[in-house]
Structure formats: structure tokens, C-alpha cells
Amino acid sequence: AQTVTQSQPEMSVQEAETVTLSCTYDTSESDYYLFWYKQPPSRQMILVIRQEAYKQQNATENRFSVNFQKAAKSFSLKISDSQLGDAAMYFCAYYDKVIFGPGTSLSVIP
Amino acid sequence: DTGVSQDPRHKITKRGQNVTFRCDPISEHNRLYWYRQTLGQGPEFLTYFQNEAQLEKSRLLSDRFSAERPKGSFSTLEIQRTEQGDSAMYLCASSLAAGPNSGNTIYFGEGSWLTVV
């Protein structure tokens, strides 16, 4: 069975600085998708970024980028130039039926 | 398109009562997922459908839980004989999946909060 692990329950970052959130997963599949989702307090879950496992190039979306290491089964999220609006729970997720990690609560310090 | 909608958004029920939640996915989406989320935790997978077929059901889902998607459009999640441990947010999501590994983006509804007293 697939599993997703996020080893950092809480993280904090100074506004305008960079922070990296960690995620590891376990699967026997060779072709799959990985996602980072953001869930602000009492708000809807929204997609931050996605990565196809067959692509070697790391995905990038504006200030968000990933470091995908397929052999190590690692999928970290880097947030550059952190903004107050980035404060939220961040969940790493594995597709097919979408298995979520336990989440990392990110605080942004003004 | 209005996105994934869930109803009701909040439900308070007495222990032992039955509750039903409805989810309307994005209209062209063929996949529909149900998750349960408690405060401070990640969403736990419950079940998912491709069109009207229920492809997988989590072992977390006891016999008191049942989900349907009769015409491949909206879905219902029913909880019978509710217990206090059922108190959680029930999330619905949908996607357009061309195959098992198509990995298209999953869109979430705002969730249905259940409180069992």
C-alpha cells in the first residue's frame, strides 16, 4: 500500500525568506503523480503544485517549486519569498486515489 | 462552473441518528472521492468512484458507512447509527481521469462538518 510521510508537523519562516517542506512516500508503482495541497484555516483545500513521476524536470509554479527525487522517493516543496498568505497547512499527496500525508503547519512571521 | 459543492455544510446530530451528505462534482468529472478529516490531521481516504462504479473502499469505512453515485454524477455518503467518533469534516473531491494513472488535478469541495452529540 502507498504511504506518505511528512516529518515536520510545524514550520515557520520569516516573511520574504525561503522555506522547504519535506515529504517522503512509498510505492511500488513506477508511474504516478505527486501533489502539494494547501489548506488555510477553515478554508478549502487548493492545489499548489503537481509533479508527474515520469518527468525528470522539477515542477515550478511561480514562487513554489519541488525537488523530486524518484529513487529516494522524496518530494519536497520550496516556497520562495514567503508571504503572509502562505500560512496554512500543507499536505503532500500521492495519486491514484490520492493518499495524503499528515500535513505541515506553516507559519509566516512578519 | 461552480466547482465541487457539498451539502449540508454543517450538521449536528444526536448519537444513533443517520445522516446523509451530498456531493455535486464538477460536471464533466468522472472521478469522485470522499475523505474524512479531523482537526489538525490530513484527509483520510474513504472511497472513490469512477463514473458510477465504486472502485475502492477504505478499511476505515465501517459497515455503518455507505456511499453511492447512482448515475455517475452526484454522490451521497450516508452514516448510519452515528457515533461521537464520527465527528469530523467529510470532504468530497472530483477529477477528470482518463485512466488509472492519468493524475489530473483533484478539486475539493468546502467540506461538510459533522458534529455528533
Order of helices and strands of chain B: EEEEEEEEEEE
Rounded radius of gyration of chain A (Å): 13 Å
Task: Report the count of strand segments of chain B.
Answer: 11
Q: Which percent band covers the strand fraction of chain B?
A: over 45%
Q: What is the rounded distance between the termini of chain A? A: 41 Å
Low-confidence stretches of chain A: none
Question: Averaging pLDDT over every residue of chain A, what do you get?
Answer: 92
Structural class of chain B: mainly beta
Q: Per DSSP, what share of the residues of chain A sits in E-state strands of 2 or more residues?
A: over 45%
Largest interface: A-B, 23 and 23 residues
- Helix-strand string of chain A: EEEEEEEEEEEE
Counted by DSSP, the helix tally of chain A is 0
Q: Kindly report the oligomeric state of this protein.
A: heterodimer
Radius of gyration of chain B: 14 Å
Task: Count the DSSP helices of chain B.
Answer: 0
Described by strand count, sense and barrel closure, the largest sheet of chain B is:
7 strands, mixed
**Residues in helices of chain B, as a percent range:** under 10%
Beta strand count of chain A:
12
> Structural class from helices and strands of chain A?
mainly beta
Main beta sheet of chain A: strand number and arrangement? Answer: 6 strands, mixed
Using the alpha-carbon principal axes, give the shape of chain A. Answer: globular
